[in-house]
Each structure stands twice: as C-alpha cells, then as structure tokens.
TrEMBL record:
It comes from Caballeronia udeis. SUPFAM superfamilies: MFS general substrate transporter. It comes from the Bacteria. This is SHS family lactate transporter-like MFS transporter. Keywords: Membrane, Transmembrane, Transmembrane helix. Its main location: membrane. Pfam families: MFS_1. The chain crosses the membrane at residues 30-53, 65-88, 95-115, 121-142, 154-176, 182-203, 224-247, 267-290, 297-315, 321-342, 354-373, 385-404. Residues 412-432 are annotated as: Disordered. Residues 30-410 form the Major facilitator superfamily (MFS) profile domain. InterPro entries: MFS, MFS_dom, MFS_trans_sf, Sugar_transporter_CS. It is a multi-pass membrane protein. It is found in: Membrane.
Length: 432
C-alpha cells in the first residue's frame, strides 16, 4: 500500500498537467492575441533602441538627447495607460484593445516620416500613448477570460511576446537596416494594425466584464475603482520591476558598441542570447509561480539577478558576456512573466483595467533609468552604472515582495494562486 500512494499522486499530477494543457489550447485565440499585441508593440520599441546611435547622428544630437526620447515615450504611457484603462472599464476590453493597437501601429509607421528631432519626439509620444493601452487592456482581457487554474501559465506566455518582438526587431535591424535605412525600420511597424482583424473575428468580450456591467450598468470607472494597500503594492512593484528592466536592456546595444567595442553588425548574437533567455524565463516564471506562489518566485529570481550583473556588464570575454546576457534574460526579464498575474490579482474586476492602467502608468518612473545611467556614466563608466542600477533595483524589489498585502486583496485574504494551491491540497494553507 505504501508504494501505491506515490503512483496515485503521479497520476493525479499527470491528469492536472494534461487538463491545464487542454485549457491552454482551448483558449489559444485570446492568448495568441495578447501575446502578438505585446510582440508587435515590442518590435517597434526595440527598433528604436537599436537605432539610438544612428539617429543621434541623423538628428545631430548626443546620447542624452536620444535617451530623452525613450524617456518621453515612457512618460506618454501615463496618459495612455490610465485613459485606455478607464475606457476599457467603461466600454469593454475588446473594443479598446483594437483601438490601442491601431493607435500605436499608426504612430510607429509615421515615425519613419519624421523630418526633425522635434517631429520624431512628437510621434514617439503618440506611440507611447498607444503602447500603454495595449498592455493595460490585453492583461485585463486575458486574465478575465482564461480559467483561474491556467492564469499563471497564460501570464508567462503573454509577456514572452516581448522577446519574440525583440528578436524580430534585432533580426530585421541586422538584415534590412543596411539595405533600406532607418525610415523603413519604423514603417514596418504599421503591420500590427492587421492584428485588429484577428481580434475582431476571433476574440470574445471578457465574460467577467459583461457580468459586472449587467450588475452595475450605470457605474463610472472612477466609482468602480478601489484603492487599498494591495493596489499600492501593485503600483510600486510595477514601477520598480520596469525600472530594473529598463536599466538592463535600453542601453545594452549602446554598451556593446561603445564599451565592449563590438561592431554594430555583430551585436545580434548577444541580443539573441538575451532574448532566448528571456523567452524561456517568462513561461518558466509562470510555471514556478503556479507551484511555489508569487512571493517565493519573485525572491528566487531576484536572488539570481544580483550576482549575474557581474557576467552581464563587468566582464570582457565574449563567451562570458553571451552567457551573462542569456542568464540575465532568463531571470531578470523572465521575472516579468509574473507581472500580468501579479497586477490582476490586486484589483477587482469592476475597476481592474483602471487599476492595471495606473500600475503601468507608474512604470513611467522607469523611463528615467536610461537617462540617469547616461548622466552617471561619465563619472563611473557605463558598465558600472548599468550594474549599479540593476542590482539596486533587484534589492528593492525583494523588499517590496516581502510586504504582505494579501489580506487586502479583492475577493478575500489570499491570492488566486493561493486559492489554486488550496484546491489541490484541501484543508491546508497555501504558501505565498
């Protein structure tokens, strides 16, 4: 009899995994739409990062001026995320998702027609407004559509789209930029508009939003939103994790070219290594979160990030650099896989899009990271400035994750992940 129990547990675990896989497949349309939206969004933004040194020469401005464009794009998200979030809580997730994709894709294409630094700045601000809306609405739609048991996995898969877009941008820059020039690199960004056709035909409105509207049809978005410590934690965590990731990746191509003295045509392998690590890390983060809980997953990943800053920035051997890029993608960028779930758990459905919109607006603070690094680098060097910002952000995130706000979460004292674990182990308390 003692030998039968482990076998029974293995069968039960196998059935659970099989059922989760079936659920993921049955909801592939909404997962694919959210992932594709994030990928196409990422493609255009990453292309800007690759072109920073070249555009600085085109517009005859220095690195601080070019990083100011990146910062302005981030600050534009304040308008976009909150505005689109309010609209999504009022008019529905699907319609606003389509509008946000159209906004950022049109702005991306028009960026290729810029005739001056000022015109380019204006178009990137417009892109930032749409950029924030895509994230805000797709997270709400996805987390409200897929069943609770697969939300950690869907969360990790969705944000993996960023790496798909990043790798496509890197490959496009490597293959097409020398032939067609910088303008066509942005004009390609109009292609995401085609995604709206898929959304319109294949994606249904959020069932949670529909039910909430039927109960409270006359309530405004501002009246629906609930502020509590859990919401505050979501906002601070979102801003800090983005600050860390902007420190990791925005100036990385510039670091490879100007500090490591690698020719621009040969930086692709390092960018690909980072992207492969990140593409693996985000679904892995969702997998780990479904088993260990969000807090333990966050601490585990960040404890790997801190020592990895040495391999990522402070070595010169190309093989160690490549390893550092891959591992930093796996753990630092991979941790982002928990963010859609982390945000969604801290807001009730009636004001979720608004809450997530404000969360993403808080990431506007992260846009100052590359600018601050650029200002600090003349004193301590670019490699040390990046390492300092990445490791410092990781330590701060650990402190934020240690703050227990679960008793203030909408729907009860425990998160949805904890509830899933309780269902798997009746009569026990889940780990957070």
């Amino acid at each position: 009899m003692e030998d039968l129990q482990p076998k029974a547990e293995q069968v039960s675990a196998g059935q659970t995994r099989s059922g989760q896989w079936r659920l993921l497949r049955s909801h592939w349309q909404v997962i694919a739409a959210a992932t594709a939206g994030w990928a196409l969004d990422s493609f255009d933004f990453a292309m800007l990062l690759f072109l920073l040194p070249h555009l600085g020469r085109v517009f005859d401005v220095g690195l601080p001026a070019m990083t100011l464009i990146v910062t302005a794009t981030g600050l534009a998200k304040i308008v976009g995320t909150i505005g689109w979030g309010l609209a999504a809580d009022r008019f529905g997730r699907k319609l606003v998702f389509i509008a946000a994709v159209l906004c950022f894709s049109c702005a991306a294409g028009l960026s290729g027609l810029a005739w001056s630094y000022a015109s380019f700045m204006a178009l990137r601000i417009l892109f930032g407004i749409g950029f924030g809306g895509e994230w805000t609405v797709s997270v709400s739609l996805l987390m409200e559509t897929v069943p609770e048991s697969i939300r950690p996995y869907a969360s990790g898969i969705m944000v993996s789209g960023y790496e798909i877009g990043y790798m496509l941008a890197a490959a496009t820059f490597h293959l097409l930029f020398p032939v067609f020039g910088w303008r066509w690199m942005f004009m390609i960004g109009v292609l995401p508009a085609l995604l709206t056709i898929f959304i319109r035909k294949n994606i249904a409105e959020s069932p949670d939003w529909i039910r909430d509207q039927q109960r409270h049809s006359r309530r405004s978005a501002f009246e629906a939103f609930e502020f509590n410590p859990a919401a505050l934690q979501a906002w601070i965590f979102s801003g800090t994790i983005n600050f860390m990731l902007w420190s990791v990746q925005v100036l990385y191509p510039t670091f490879l070219i100007s500090v490591q003295h690698i020719d621009a045509s040969r930086i692709y392998p390092f960018l690909a290594a980072y992207s492969v690590g990140s593409l693996t890390g985000k679904p892995l983060c969702g997998y780990v979160a479904a088993r260990l809980g969000e807090r333990r997953t966050i601490v585990l990943f960040l404890c790997m990030v801190i020592p990895l800053t040495v391999l990522y920035t402070l070595v010169s051997n190309v093989w160690l650099l490549a390893a550092g890029a891959c591992l930093m993608g796996l753990f630092a960028s991979g941790l982002f896989g928990i963010l859609p779930l982390y945000q969604a758990l801290r807001f009730s459905v009636k004001g979720r899009a608004t809450g997530i919109g404000i969360s993403y607006a808080m990431t506007a603070a992260s846009s100052i990271a590359p600018y601050a690094i650029a200002l600090l680098s003349p004193s301590i060097g670019l490699r040390s400035a990046i390492a300092l910002f990445v490791a410092g952000s990781a330590l701060l995130l650990i402190a934020i994750a240690a703050w227990n706000t679960t008793r203030w979460m909408p729907g009860g004292p425990r998160s949805a992940v904890d509830a899933q674990e309780s269902e798997r182990s009746p009569g026990t308390h889940a780990r957070t």
